[in-house]
């Protein structure tokens, strides 16, 4: 099976000595996996919060574990976003999405710990919407960035 290389890929191959695109695909799959799990965890967080508000008080502990797990996932998302951008020469938006969600997650954690429900609930809804939208668009992560495009 022989595949024709573009001029850019030929130049990349001459510089680095390896076939371009493989790292991009690997990082794109890793990023997609992380972001799919983030979307699922965020949706589960809403279920756990609803259970807690309905009187299942043990759900609050699981809600806290979910917050910690989403922190870890988003940190991994930032690392993979950096690798995707600079090692894989991919787009920059996945990195900014992961950083933005990580920062929002920290604000969310502080609002939850401080019992600021008027901030915690709407921010949680917004984070779920962003995570689901990213999960729906994440298949575009594996495209190379062109010129100044992000």
From TrEMBL:
The chain crosses the membrane at residues 28-53, 65-86, 93-111, 117-136. The keyword Transmembrane applies. Keywords: Membrane, Transmembrane, Transmembrane helix. This is Integral membrane protein. The lineage of its organism: Bacteria, Bacillati, Actinomycetota, Actinomycetes, Kitasatosporales.
């Amino acid at each position: 099976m022989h595949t024709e290389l573009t001029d850019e890929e030929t130049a990349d191959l001459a510089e680095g000595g390896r076939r371009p695109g493989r790292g991009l695909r690997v990082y794109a799959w890793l990023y997609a996996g992380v972001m799919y799990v983030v979307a699922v965890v965020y949706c589960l967080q809403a279920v756990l919060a609803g259970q807690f508000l309905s009187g299942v008080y043990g759900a609050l502990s699981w809600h806290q574990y979910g917050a910690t797990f989403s922190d870890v996932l988003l940190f991994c998302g930032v690392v993979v976003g950096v690798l995707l951008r600079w090692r894989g020469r991919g787009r920059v938006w996945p990195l900014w999405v992961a950083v933005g969600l990580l920062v929002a997650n920290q604000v969310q954690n502080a609002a939850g710990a401080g019992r600021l429900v008027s901030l915690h609930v709407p921010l949680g809804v917004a984070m779920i919407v962003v995570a689901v939208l990213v999960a729906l668009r994440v298949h575009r992560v594996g495209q190379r960035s062109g010129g100044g495009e992000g």
